[in-house]
What does this fold into?
Amino acid sequence: MADFEAVTPAVRLAQDLADARRRGEPFAGAWDEAVKRAVTGQRTDERAAWSSAFTATAAAWASAWHREAATRPQLALLAVAADPERVPLAA
It folds into this structure.
């Protein structure tokens, strides 16, 4: 990773959950603390938005933790996100 490349809260969450999984922790025990660490350092509004997004997608994170197959909607979203011709939404 480049020196100046920002690590998003989602990437930080994924890394923390992967570390916890390797240590043998259960998802339920790792989730809350990993979310807290992931949003640490964000502005208040950003922290609330990320926390809300993580809460809304907790079931998908748990499925990934348990290495369950992605759902059709998840696969469709991945295909759209990975499209090199996709035009990003304006901030």
Summary: The mean pLDDT is 89. Residues 9-22 form the longest helix (14 residues). The chain has one domain: 9-82. The helical segments are 9-22, 27-39, 44-56, 58-65, 72-82.
